[in-house]
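Hi R.,

Here's the input for the S-adenosylmethionine complex you asked about:
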Amino acid sequence: MEHVPVLLAESLEFLDIRPEGRYVDFTTGLGGHTRGIASNLTTGCVLALDRDGESLEQARENTKGLHDRIIFRQAAFSQLDEAIRSEGWDLVDGMISDLGVSKVQLTSPERGFSLMNPGPVDMRMDRKAEITAADIISRSSEQELVRLFMEFGEERRIPSQNAARAIRARPIRDTRHLAEVVASAVPRFGKLHPATRIFQALRMAVNDEPAELDALLKHAPEHLKPGGRWVVIAFHSGEDRKVKNAFRELGRAGVAKVLTKHVVRPGPEETRRNPPSRSAVLRALEMGSGGSDNNMDELDSKEDAA
Ligand SMILES: C[S@@+](CC[C@H](N)C(=O)[O-])C[C@H]1O[C@@H](n2cnc3c(N)ncnc32)[C@H](O)[C@@H]1O
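And here is the predicted structure with S-adenosylmethionine in place:
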């Protein structure tokens, strides 16, 4: 079945693709947004980045026929300067970041993201990375796990304490066992599986997601041309808050104009077709005509002065 990316039509509308332009997809995943951008190019090109080499392989498959307009490269957000410069690029016409995990990561038990299907307690987006979720569990004290679940998982204190105690009390065999151990210690609250927030917290820690997002929000806009557009899609409130604040700062400093006064969410038809899209929130901005360089300097000095 063809992979349908979240908020594709809306993303393309905000990007307002120039057929000869240069674009960066920081989160290529299965290549849905990359394909959408590349299909609108003539002599232009998309630099398709992702830290997950296996997702990039899938993206290559899913974008057959468009490879003359796509460059695939494995890179994390924290390596974006190097990735863009290594192509001899500096400023680009548009960028997209569709944060979170890809379908291939979530649905392959061996990647260790799945609550339902047993797999190793892994959760690395880049399988060459050293630390797995099992390492974090075995190396952290109960108190450290509680803090992790509260901060990254946005879980409340008592369920975090109960989950941490239950996890530390026995060896965890696989992801389904982990989900069951958490479920036995934490009551179900609403529709969400009780281990959802615990899995999210572990995944964020394994992949250093908060620091990676900070690097993206700081350095990506430095690569936008005057008039260049950036679309960011977030799936949980902590990430979206960071995006909102970063965009607001750029807007206040006169560096960029925020195009989404109100966030854009999937409509009922999209959430019916693709239920996980229901938590997606899209924000977009346009770099001011002063260009990125001058105004980014101005923003730095304003921050220094604050
Ligand atoms: C929601 S998926 C993107 C789906 C994609 N837009 C599509 O249409 O198939 C998010 C992707 O971002 C990647 N990712 C997450 N954090 C990253 C980071 N810090 N650096 C690079 N890629 C990252 C994940 O590996 C995943 O493939």
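One thing worth noting: The radius of gyration is 20 Å.

Cheers,
M.
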